[in-house]
Specification:
- This protein is an alpha/beta fold.
- It folds into two domains: 9-16 and 265-390, Aspartate Aminotransferase, domain 1, CATH 3.90.1150; 31-262, 3-Layer(aba) Sandwich (Aspartate Aminotransferase, domain 2), CATH 3.40.640.10.
- The chain has helices spanning 20-26, 37-53, 66-77, 91-102, 120-129, 153-163, 213-217, 229-233, 248-264, 266-287, 316-328, 355-371, 380-390; strands at residues 9-11, 58-63, 83-88, 106-111, 135-141, 143-144, 149-150, 168-172, 191-195, 206-211, 294-295, 307-311, 330-334, 344-348.
- Strands 2-10-9-8-5-3-4 form a seven-stranded mixed sheet, with helices on both faces. It has a five-stranded mixed sheet with strand order 1-13-14-12-11, with helices on one face. A two-stranded antiparallel ribbon has the order 6-7.
- The longest helix is centred in the C-terminal third of the chain and has 22 residues, at 266-287.
- The chain binds pyridoxal-5'-phosphate.
- Residues 14, 65-67, 92, 141, 144-145, 172, 174-175, 195, 204 line the site of pyridoxal-5'-phosphate.
Amino acid sequence: MSLSNGRAYLAIPGPSVIPDAVLRAMHRASPNIYEGELHDLTQSLIPDLKTVARTDHNVAIYIGNGHAAWEAALANVLSRGDTVLVLATGRFCIGWGEMAAGLGADVQTIDYGAQAPIDLALVEQALVADTAGRIKAVLAVHVDTSTSVKNDVPGLRALLDKTGHPALLMVDCIASLGCDQFEMDAWGVDVMVAACQKGLMTPAGISFVWYGPKADAARGNCVTTYWDWRPRSAPEMYFQYFDGTAPTHHLYGLRAALNIILAEGLDHVFWRHETLARAIWAAFDQWSKTGAMRLNILDPAHRSHAVTSVEIGSPDGDRLRHWCEHQAGLTLGIGLGRSPSDAYFRLGHMGHVNAQMIMGLLGTIEAGLTALGIAHGRGALDAAADVIAAA
Ligand SMILES: Cc1ncc(COP(=O)(O)O)c(C=O)c1O
C-alpha cells in the first residue's frame, strides 16, 4: 500500500518546482516571432536578468542547459593553450574544467574534495607562483550542487586584487542565482553563468552568461558565431538574441518567473531561502544525534541555502529515496558524484518553495527513516518548526 497519490513533490536540486503562473504563461499557441509581443517581452527580460544578478553589465541568452552557458562563457574569453585555474569543490567545477580542457585550455586544478569550501590560502599560492601571469581565468562554482558547499566569491576577488593578478574571475551560479545572495558587480565578478531551471523556476532549456567589460576585452580565438555573446547582448535584429529561432515558450515562462521574484523582492527571496535552509539544518542536527546520518558541509557559513547534501551510509541513501518516492510522492536527489552514490542523498529547496513544503519534506523523511528502521535522533520536526516560528 502506498500513500503517494496526490500532488507529487520534486525536491531535487534542479529542475525545481515550477510555479503554476509559469506553466500557465507557457501554455499558449506559438506566438508571432517576427514582431510584437514576443519582441517586447524579450527586451523586458534583459534588465530583469541584470537585476537578479545585481549587475549593470551585459547578459546573453542561450538556448541550452547550464553546460551550454559553461561552453559559451569559456569560448568567449579563451584561446587554445590559455591556462585556467579550476577551484574544485565538487563535481560541477571539475566538469567546467573538463570543458575548458576540451576547448584546448591548459587546466590547473586545485581539488578541495567533496566536503570543504575553497581554501583561499591555496589559491593565493597558485596566483603568486604564476609570476608570468599565464592564468587567464579562475573558475569557481558559487554553490556546487553535488556537495552543497557555498564558496566565498568576494574572498576570491579580494585575493586577485591583493596579489595584483590579472586573471578573470568566472563564477558558476547555476545553483545559487535567485536563492543565495550573489552580487556580480559589488563582488567584482567578470563572468557569471546560470540556467533557468533552478532558482529561476522555468523548465530547463535556456541559460545565460553575464559578462563585464574586462571579460569582453579579453576575447580569445575560441569563439564561434553561435557562442559569440556580443550580438546576443546587443542585437541589431531580434533573431540575433538567439542566433536563430527564439525559444518562444521559455521566454514567456521566464517572464512569469522573474515577475514572481521581483514581486517578492530579491532580498526577501534570499531571506526565505536562508530561513528554510536553517529549518532543514535544525532538523538534521537532531537526526544526526543518533545513527550515521550527517550533513555533508559542517560549517553553516559554507552551506548552500538551496541544496543540502547528506551522508547516510550505503545503501540507506537509495533506500530512503525509494521509500519517499514510492510511499509518499516525494522525490529526493541522488548522491551525485559521490562513491558509493547510495550512501548519499540531496534535498533541493530552491525557487518556488515555502515553509509548509519544507515541513512536509522533513516530515516525510522522518516517516521514511522510521519505516526503514534507520537510526536517527528525535525532535527534528520540532526543531525545524521552531526556526520557522521564530522567523
Ligand atoms: C552548479 C551547477 N553547474 C552546472 C550544472 C550543469 O547544468 P545543466 O545540467 O543545466 O547542464 C549544474 C546542474 O545541476 C549545476 O548544479
